[in-house]
Write a structure and sequence with these properties.
With 1142 residues, the chain is of the alpha+beta class. Among the domains are: 142-228, Phage tail protein beta-alpha-beta fold (3-Layer(bab) Sandwich), CATH 3.55.50.30; 553-726, outer membrane lipoprotein receptor (LolB), chain A; 955-1025, no CATH class; 1040-1120. The strands form 7 sheets. Strands 26-27-28-29-30-31-32-20-21-22-23-24-25-33 form a 14-stranded mixed sheet. Strand 20 and strand 21 form a beta hairpin. Helix 34 packs antiparallel against helix 35. The longest helix has 23 residues, at 483-505. It is globular. Residues 1-16, 247-356 and 1120-1142 have low confidence and may be disordered.
Length: 1142
Amino acid sequence: PAEAAAGENPFSGQDALAPRTIDDLAAMLRRESKMNVVVDYRALDDVGIKTENELHGYGRGRMSLRAYARFLLGQCDLTLLEQPHRLCITTPEQAETELTAEVYPIPDFLMADRMAARDQLLNPYLDRRLAAERRIREKLKRPIDVKFINTPLKEVVDYFAKELNDTVLVDEKALADVGIDIHTSITADWRDVPARDSLRWILHDFGLTYRTGDEALLITTPEAAENTSELRLHSGRGIVFEYAVPANRDNFGPFPGAMGGFGGGMGMGGMGFFGGGMGMMGGMGGMAMGGMGGTLGGGPSPAIEPAPDPSISLSSGGDDTLPEESETPDSTPSSGIEGRDGRAFARSAPSREETSGQQYVHDIDSINNLLTSTVQPTTWDDVGGPGTIAFCESTLDFVVKATEDVHEEIEMLFARLRKLPPMDIGDGAWRPAALRSDSVSDFDYIIDMITSTVLNRTWDEVGGPGSIAPHEPYGALIVSQTQEVHDKIAELLTMLRRSRYESLHGERPWLWTAPSPDRPLIAPWPEHDWPATSMSELPQANAEELEALAERRAEQSGFWLWRRTSDDGKDSQEISLLCHNGRIELKSNDCTLIAEGDQAKIVWHDLHFIELGNWGEDVRRLADRLLPWMPHRTNEELARMFQVARTESGRVRLTPNGLPKDADSFLEAEFSGDSPLPRFWMTQLAGRPTGRLSTANADGRPTVTFSDGDGKDLARWELIDSKAPFVPRLSTETKAAWNDFVSLDRRSPQAAVDKLLAEAVGAMVKTDWDEATGALRKMLNVYPRQPLLLLLTAWCHENNPGFCSRELTIDALKQLARQGAGPLTRHIDGRFFPSLAPAERYDILSCLPPESLKAEDWDRLAAAAAEAGRATESLAHARAALRSDGGRRLFERRRLVVELLLRLERGDEAAESAVRWAAEAPPEQAAELAELLAKFGRSQMADELFFRILEDKNLTTNARYGLLCRRASVHRGQLRWQLLLEAAETAKQDSPGRNRALDLIVAELTEPIQAETAGQLAAAAKSPDIKFRMLLAQADLSVVLQDRSELFWEVYQSGRLPENRYDTAFGAWNAENHPERVIEVAETVLRRGERLKTDGQMRELSLAYRNAGRELDARRAAFDDPPPEKPRDSGSRRPRGGMGFF
């Protein structure tokens, strides 16, 4: 649901802007949120509440409309339900009956190779609440002076709201229960006391307290505060220790003792337990090495691409890649589950040093006992209180539901414990627990954590209405609950995902962080680049190195215009370079960069924005990427960046500073004095060639080609124009062209130009949105409709909700779009502007002038229109993007067109386009089109498309496996299982891929009538292991006892009957009067010195002995019987052919 904003006004009902009745509040919600708002009159009548009743609740400050409405309604014992397409004012009792089912995908909690997608880390409501709480807690630490003489509580609230510059509310409903109102007189007089203590002292005299939450500081009663618990994570890192498990720990078998009475020691061994800038122009890659980018061997790339998802999974339809074969067995997932009080040892996956046999478990029990016995002991659920604790092993976090006071005590306790040095007992029995990337949870663990901490009295297991169940094939939880519970579950999962992501990656992509002086606000180079070392910090060049570079001709002044083209010819970019006495001007796409010494100027033409900073070497390093033979570098610069030496062949070898010369990592080149281009240029990393440049001069037009270490061409540069040597007129000498550009001076703490913009950015860093908006408003008076200023102004309104802020946000963004500022409009999304509805975002983007639109702009319009439910407009925009430029996103755009045609029920047109475009696409992409057709009911066409794709004789084993699984996903029943069987045949024996395909078949064969189908699959199998796996499935499904018995025996004789299936097989053989089979299999195990794994196997063996007429052996095998007494004549031998194994 969209979130609107409330303004800066007193909530006493005295102000004309404040709603006085429930009807007034409903009208305000309609007006401000632009949503449908209804009042549940029937529910209100049931509890005797009239909509003309006056609202209560006093306060001062700003808060979101969502929090404001909930506060006011809470004072009337009402609540606000956010339902599809509307908001509903109703009673809490009625809200508890409004259950909805939601799906929560959690594969990132269940699988070690899965990481949460970045959009799963976003939750704007959570961010706003947490930011408000942090802000208020920090402000409460400020010292203030207090002087009240018989001052009404109302005025005291106003004073604290003004001093804190934040929202303070009064829970008048709770105060009325103890006979206090906002006119109660207060007397207090002291100086320089933190606001937190001042407020506590004042409220204590009246038996009151305060809490923070819901974007405000709320004055209430202790009883009301205790009934309001909040969920927080408390990191266990530095608190939780893990203990060594004894290596000889025994997993007790089914037999008592060591089976001494049965003639042999069969004891089993232990089984063990188990930010940044908004980059708009990615670097070109280059042969980045040393000063040119940090590492050798990076080939040119037109953009910085995100790393591929390393995870491999198999859905019901399979995956497009065969899982990697591994010699290492999979680690058992974590499954240590706490009870309601969270007291248990959580089992952890073995760490690397545990592979030698030593294993560790987390000690959670002692920390839980510590908290529940020392931190307000009467508040925990094991003694009837509301507080609960759970532990999330995959993040090492304690999930605690408690009051604010309890959370503060836990934070202080953990902080003190972390400062203490752990005792050294010398034997390595314990060590601090460390977060491991392979640590995972299971469904039961996650379900128990949710139901024990998220409104734990609302779940069906304790008589509540809510329910939760796993859906294992999709790695998801299905939850039926109220809106309040769904909100809290979403927040909990978001907090856990953020904790894990930050711990493993060291960054918080969900937060807007203060721009570092080391990087521009809008960086034209890759976000992951380290700040470049300035030239002034590098060693001076020596004469010998300069002599080695003497044949290299470096132009001191000149102009060059190059066109770079990718190997497939789809991406093209013009790069111009101006040089003059150490100053360079580099222009590419929408950006001009000027560097002189350590200082730089970055000019964004579409944004009318200039940024100044100490990034001179960063600009030169970007030029190294764009033009990897570095024509802009002087010989002296190269001699300072590299260790330069002549080789025996007469070439020049450049080794990056900091690497030893014998590291076998270098750049090697050969020059001629008559050309600035090298005759030979190659890079090598650790002895392996990584790149080579070759030059040509056809028809007087020099060209440069880059190829990788295997000789494959990746990019080509062609010189379009040049003027050298000459003294160019640099753009800095034509300042008139940039007169209306705004500048952000980052060269020093005190800006020399456009100080208001620097003040605005500084205020945004401090989240002082009022100050930032004021500075930006003044800037807009000087630079009307300046694109960047409009975007920043809209963002400030978004983060500082007030009356009309929504309209101001939309108006600023529409003005921005009308300027044709396409690159900036990519930030008009749910991350930066979460309050905008999809239709509003589309209306804003529709203001972009059509003549200014590039392919990427059409893409954004198509996505926005689709999200807003306007498929026809989305299709038109998607086709415009295709006409504008197919480029590297050609397939993505074609796929969108096919999907939109299908959504518009233009199936024949979609199928024709899919077949035509699939013929031009790689197999994996063609399979996506087939899956899309199947998703919209075109299964026959999808299957035909898959058939054509699989006819390709050049498919690799991995590709064929994945395509067969994906083809299976468009079918159901026997054809699907046949395709999965074929996929399993494609994979190697005992590989994860084969096992997963077979697991899917077995999991879907669930009905006795499908036993014949399993037999048919077994008959069709070519590999023996697959055949007997299907026969075992047939045995499980068969209801004919004779067939089950014979199938189990056939599988056993093949040597492929797993021991964990012996229980079932023994039962089938005994049922069909084949005790000899049970005895043969069991005694084979026992003769190996092993033990039968389960009590059930022993019981079936005892029954088999009895059916075979061997009563003595039957009694000895019986689990409940004691071992037989030792024979009196210990030296006598058992007669041959006597009592069998026993």
